[in-house]
């Protein structure tokens, strides 16, 4: 199947809270191609994780409401699917690796029993897998993520594992079932540097082996630069720029992207950048028009009034900024 | 839990603080209802002599011609077997309940908190061990049984019952305060004040105590209801205020044997009791809201 | 690790015994005369006093008393004139049956309401549950008992008002002392059903407070855990909601409730006296309360000690159960050893 595996079209999502609503996602457009690795960068709080959770419809017990938009997975709108279809997507099509492996593992159950549960309700559906078969799959999965002595680990509780091991277990869990799309939310953030490297390399190998599409969410720009084909920049609930990764990092166009990418100190010298003055806006009363305008040094009158859509500047390089409207710049 | 450092924060209780507290309190409608109920009951109790038409109902009055009357215009809650107006008796019974909780809480809070402060501050010393062991022993006996036992030894009247309940109740405050003091004890600001050379008394009451206050006050308000419940359980079996003084528990007990025919003798005091406890519980929840550091 | 706990509990029990003993000796009045009656002669009284060691110092008295207690001998009850131990073994099963049923109601109704409330949080189901729980907390057991009796026994006439069994039925042979169990063992369903009907109102009255507070705690606990990341993660793997609810969610959520439950057993047993009084239930709590009011010291000692044992035993059971539910406690201990 050659089309885009994932297409988010103009997704708007808000949370109903005490004082009104948090208009978190504001017309998000996001595509992932077949076997493509897409990065998603942005500051903490830019709603990256919320977007990912929306894809799998796992916004949990929050008061999230989707006001408009579509999430097309393999051509079908997830938002319109019924419960059974969504379950099928979660089980055998999309998998997610969460930011904090310690929080993602249920501390009250052993690793083995959690893995058993996952297998039972994904690949085990419809087939009658025996206990030994399930156990064997579990051991195999753990072995794949380079965990030593998988049999013993099955009996362990999460608290008995180190951070790096927990992250590997989470990766193993993500790959337990079949999947076409992997969402990796800040993998390695809670790990120290040496472990992080190993884990990321492991992830890359697994992805290449399975030939799946990946969404890599991160605010660690170096990681994104090395792994992804294409990258989106997200700010305060919508995408502001997208380009092939190399192009984006070499030539960022949106004022926010420019500042963001400049923040990473370069070995080639040039000093440390200023950072970006201001803060991510609150979502209760977000700025009108382009949400970045209060912090933008190039702000124009139209920016305060109307929100820019994606303008194509070069092939495969699009920016949501009035500076780049056709005919200008 | 907000840590209160150098109690100056407390002394600057400006009007805006009060306003903000009121806002937090009033967000929940139930708390307002609680406040209203408590206010009404308090007013009824205080102005009892002015409201009630049959003041003789709380004395050794007997009028068999008016006995066992169902609720009517002249006797809104009916009369009991002695011909006394139940409405009047209920209002006066509120006084007893409120008095009981006021006295009991005053005693048990002052004793319990002080002991808890001292034991927690001198943690590890013989004071700590002594106080906490006694507390443990007291706490291992269910409250009602302990109160009953103490009442059994003493002559049977309202005062002794109040003493008995206080003796049971102080342990809860002691243990709670002890817990808070233990955790605050190690904070840097305490060590700082100690280094300066502040007297122990000053430290205890001006630095540590403010940190406990919010929990103590919340518990106190919720405890009013609990004390009233225990008090009425005790008076149900004949302890507490003796006849002819009107008391909710004893009124319910006296009417119990006449069910279902003279249902009003038990029914109205029961409803009154539930309302009273409900009011204070709702109020307590509201006060809890004021002190709660919300999670945004 | 548990040894510490048990030793400590024994210490507390011992302290309790001292307390009881001191109380019983403070009470004014001549114990000899109280036991033997007003017409006993001085000589008889004196012999009694010597036999009971009343003439010796208080420490010696305590020693003798304690020794007897260790053998289960609490002396003779002033009221029933029987050995206290015998009295207690007669009345305890009745209260235990009541308490156990109250407990069953607490667990089934209380926890279920809590779980449902949390599941449908902030909807009308939740509000209804919380409202009901609130009334459970503010309504004292005796008020509920009386109102319940009024409605169900006198107005609707669906439940019996007094006692453990209808007068025309015979008690089944005593194996456990619990009528329902004994009847079941015998296969006697008529008696079982009748005893059960007699149990409903008293045990619900008893368990009312427990139901309400457990419902609240369960709701808070489940609601708290609903938002946890591992629940969302479980959803992302495609595990059905029902499975998540009863497996991943239930285990951690039960921890605070279980802690409370074991302690509630002891307090229910003691609060039972009001309910036993109202429903004319021949139980332990009523026996104890009568003893207290009549100043039957031997009986009081026995009652308070037994209650203390239940309370302390409850504490130990709590620790054990929580250790079962939360594997981290055991593992953290192992790590530090």
Give a verbal description of the structure.
The complex is a heterotrimer of chains A (329), B (296) and C (337). By secondary structure, chain A is of the alpha/beta class. Chain A contains twelve helices and twelve strands. In chain A, the strands form two sheets. An eight-stranded mixed beta sheet of chain A has the order 6-7-8-3-9-10-12-11, sandwiched between helices. In chain A, strands 2-1-4-5 form a four-stranded antiparallel beta sheet, covered by helices on one side. In chain A, 42% of the residues are buried. Chain B is mainly α and 296 residues long. In chain C, helix 5 packs across helix 9 and helix 5 (84-119) runs antiparallel to helix 11 (241-278). Chains in contact: A-C, B-C.
Layout of strands and helices, then pairs:
The complex is a heterotrimer of chains A (329), B (296) and C (337).
Chain A: E1 6-17, E2 20-32, E3 37-41, H1 48-56, E4 64-73, E5 76-77, H2 83-92, E6 94-97, H3 101-104, H4 111-121, H5 131-144, H6 150-154, H7 163-174, E7 181-185, H8 193-210, E8 213-218, H9 221-227, E9 230-235, E10 238-244, H10 245-250, H11 255-262, H12 301-305, E11 311-314, E12 317-319
Parallel strand pairs in A: 3-8, 3-9, 6-7, 7-8
Antiparallel strand pairs in A: 1-2, 1-4, 4-5, 9-10, 10-12, 11-12
Helix pairs in contact in A: 4-5, 7-8
Chain B: H1 8-11, H2 15-26, H3 29-46, H4 48-51, H5 86-121, H6 126-140, H7 143-153, H8 158-185, H9 188-196, H10 200-236, H11 248-256, H12 264-291
Helix pairs in contact in B: 2-12, 3-5, 3-12, 5-6, 5-8, 5-10, 5-12, 6-8, 7-8, 8-10, 10-11, 10-12, 11-12
Chain C: H1 2-26, H2 31-36, H3 42-51, H4 58-70, H5 84-119, H6 124-138, H7 141-155, H8 179-186, H9 189-226, H10 229-236, H11 241-278, H12 284-294, H13 297-325, H14 327-335
Helix pairs in contact in C: 1-13, 5-6, 5-9, 5-11, 6-9, 7-9, 8-9, 9-11, 11-12, 11-13, 12-13, 13-14
């Amino acid at each position: 199947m050659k089309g885009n595996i994932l297409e988010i079209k103009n997704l708007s999502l808000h949370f109903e809270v005490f004082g009104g609503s948090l208009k978190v996602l504001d017309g998000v457009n996001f595509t992932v191609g077949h076997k493509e690795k897409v990065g998603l960068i942005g500051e903490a709080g830019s709603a990256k994780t919320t977007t990912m959770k929306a894809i799998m419809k796992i916004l949990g017990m929050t008061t999230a409401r989707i006001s408009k938009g579509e999430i097309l997975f393999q051509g079908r709108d997830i938002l319109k699917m019924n419960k059974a279809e969504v379950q099928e997507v979660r089980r055998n099509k999309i998998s997610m690796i969460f930011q904090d492996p310690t929080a993602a593992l249920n501390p009250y159950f052993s690793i083995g029993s959690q893995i058993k549960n996952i297998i039972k309700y994904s690949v085990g559906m419809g087939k009658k897998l025996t206990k030994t078969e399930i156990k064997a799959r579990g051991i195999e999965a753990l072995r794949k993520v380079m965990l030593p002595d998988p049999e013993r680990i099955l009996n362990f509780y999460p608290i008995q594992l180190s951070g790096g091991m927990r992250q590997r277990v989470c990766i193993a869990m993500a790959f337990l079932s079949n999947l076409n799309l992997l969402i990796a939310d800040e993998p390695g953030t809670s790990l120290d540097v040496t472990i992080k490297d190993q884990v990321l390399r492991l992830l890359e190998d697994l992805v290449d082996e399975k030939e799946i599409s990946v969404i890599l969410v991160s605010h660690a720009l170096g990681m994104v630069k090395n792994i992804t084909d294409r990258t989106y920049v997200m700010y305060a609930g919508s995408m502001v720029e997208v380009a092939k990764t190399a192009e984006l990092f070499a030539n960022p166009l949106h004022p926010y992207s420019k500042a963001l990418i400049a923040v990473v100190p370069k070995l080639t010298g040039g000093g440390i950048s200023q950072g970006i003055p201001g803060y991510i806006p609150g979502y209760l009363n977000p700025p009108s028009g382009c949400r970045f305008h209060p912090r933008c040094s190039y702000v124009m009158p139209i920016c305060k009034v109307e929100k820019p859509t994606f303008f194509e500047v070069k092939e495969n390089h699009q920016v949501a900024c009035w500076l780049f409207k056709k005919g200008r710049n | 839990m907000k840590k209160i450092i150098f109690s100056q924060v407390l002394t600057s209780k400006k009007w805006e603080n009060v306003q903000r507290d009121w806002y937090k309190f009033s967000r929940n409608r139930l708390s307002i209802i609680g406040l209203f109920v408590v206010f009404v009951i308090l007013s009824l109790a205080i102005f009892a002599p002015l409201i009630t038409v049959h003041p003789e109902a709380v004395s050794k009055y007997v009028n068999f011609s008016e006995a066992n009357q169902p609720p009517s215009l002249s006797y809104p809650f009916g009369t009991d077997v002695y011909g006394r107006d139940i409405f009047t008796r209920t209002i006066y019974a509120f006084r007893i309940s409120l008095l009981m909780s006021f006295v009991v809480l005053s005693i048990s809070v002052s004793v319990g908190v002080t002991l808890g402060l001292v034991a927690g501050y001198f943690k590890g010393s013989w004071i700590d061990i002594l106080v906490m062991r006694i507390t443990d022993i007291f706490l291992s006996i269910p409250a009602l049984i302990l109160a009953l036992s103490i009442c059994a030894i003493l002559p049977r009247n309202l005062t002794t019952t109040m003493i008995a309940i206080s003796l049971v109740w102080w342990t809860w405050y002691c243990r709670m305060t002890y817990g808070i003091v233990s955790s605050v004890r190690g904070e840097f600001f305490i060590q700082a004040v100690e280094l300066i050379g502040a007297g122990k008394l000053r430290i205890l009451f001006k630095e540590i105590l403010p940190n406990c206050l919010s929990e103590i006050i919340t518990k106190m308000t919720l405890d009013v209801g609990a004390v009233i419940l225990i008090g009425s359980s005790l008076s149900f079996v004949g302890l507490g205020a003796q006849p002819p003084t009107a008391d909710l528990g004893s009124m319910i007990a006296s009417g119990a044997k006449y069910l279902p025919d003279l249902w009003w003798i038990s029914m109205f005091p029961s409803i009154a009791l539930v309302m009273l406890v409900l009011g204070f519980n709702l109020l307590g929840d509201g006060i809890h809201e004021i002190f709660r550091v919300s999670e945004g | 690790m548990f040894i510490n706990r048990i030793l400590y509990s024994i210490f507390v029990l011992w302290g309790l015994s001292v307390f009881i003993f001191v109380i019983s000796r403070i009470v004014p009045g001549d114990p000899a005369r109280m036991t033997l009656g007003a017409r006993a002669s001085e000589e008889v009284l004196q012999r009694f006093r010597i036999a009971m060691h009343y003439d010796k110092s208080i420490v010696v008295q305590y020693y003798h008393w304690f020794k007897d207690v260790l053998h289960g001998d609490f002396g003779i009850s002033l009221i029933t004139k029987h050995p206290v131990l015998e009295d207690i073994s007669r009345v305890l099963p009745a209260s235990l049956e009541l308490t156990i049923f109250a407990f069953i109601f607490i667990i089934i109704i209380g926890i279920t309401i809590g779980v449902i409330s949390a599941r449908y949080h902030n909807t009308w189901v939740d509000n209804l549950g919380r409202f009901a729980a609130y009334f459970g907390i503010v309504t004292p057991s005796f008020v509920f008992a009386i109102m319940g009796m009024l409605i169900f026994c006198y107005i609707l006439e669906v439940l019996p008002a007094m006692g453990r069994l209808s007068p025309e039925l015979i008690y089944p042979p005593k194996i456990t002392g619990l009528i329902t169990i004994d009847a079941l063992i015998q296969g006697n369903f008529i008696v079982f059903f009748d005893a059960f009907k007699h149990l409903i109102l008293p045990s619900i009255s008893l368990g009312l407070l427990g139901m309400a507070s457990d419902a609240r705690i369960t709701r808070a606990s489940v609601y708290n855990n609903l938002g946890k990341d591992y629940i969302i993660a479980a959803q992302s793997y495609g595990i059905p909601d029902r499975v998540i609810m009863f497996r991943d969610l239930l285990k951690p959520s039960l921890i605070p409730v279980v802690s409370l439950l074991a302690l509630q057993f002891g307090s229910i047993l003691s609060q039972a006296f009001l309910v036993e009084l109202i429903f004319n239930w021949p139980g332990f709590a009523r026996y104890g309360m009568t003893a207290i009011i009549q100043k039957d010291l031997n009986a009081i000692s026995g009652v308070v000690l037994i209650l203390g044992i239940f309370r302390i035993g409850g504490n130990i059971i709590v620790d054990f159960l929580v250790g079962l539910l939360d594997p981290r406690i055991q593992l953290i201990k192992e790590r530090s050893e």
